[in-house]
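Why do we bother with holo predictions? Because pocket geometry can differ from the apo form. Keep that in mind while you read this record for glutamine.
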Amino acid sequence: DSRIGVLALQGAFREHVTSLQSLPGVEAVEVRTKEQLDGVDGLIIPGGESTTMALVAERWGLIPELQRFTRELQRPVWGTCAGLIFLADRAVGTKTGGQALLGGLDVTVARNFFGAQIHSFETRLTAPECLLHAPTAVAGQPTFRALFIRAPAILETGPGVEVLARYHLTPEEAAEDSSRPASVVVAVRSGHLLATSFHPELVGDARWHALFADMVRETIKGKQREERQAREV
Ligand code: GLN
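The structure, written out:
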């Protein structure tokens, strides 16, 4: 079994726990302390309010621990919405001011990218190949429900960052500001990191959770392989 933690300082963490519990072979754990973090194989950083989440994490002394987990130990981490902002190397846009970012994901993210015009909306986007084979209730569906809540968008991706989903701006959205790109990235994978602008935990599509659980399982297998090799030397 793999133990997957959900950072439970603030925001939509319970829904992630519920989604994880729908998957076989996965144990979901709420994470609020260093000890709890030490006990999990992977971590989800949920949506919420990234400034508040960073402040709480700072007050509880968790920032260095989270950085160690993500960057040194290279454990799998999935950030949704505010969690994506938290993982990003660079954040721009409204109300970005001095909040601590964990970093590690080589992207530039724009906070509240969709927020100026619509706070919250849902659409269907093309599912990436890696989502099509997930053994869940909606397996094989070529699109997925993407729910955006004051969501960030990814404006730039560094080398090694794989784009999993894109959102194409409507003519109205594009007309609002001529400096806006025709499309933005809303889901990426980069090595042990996964990040999405939208909220799969709120629409009953566990395929993203299944994908992350696979990433965690792969990491555990890799670690066991290393340990075996170390013993044989
Ligand atoms: N707008 C929020 C932020 O900047 C993110 C919103 C969300 O996580 N649903 O932190």
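The radius of gyration is 17 Å.
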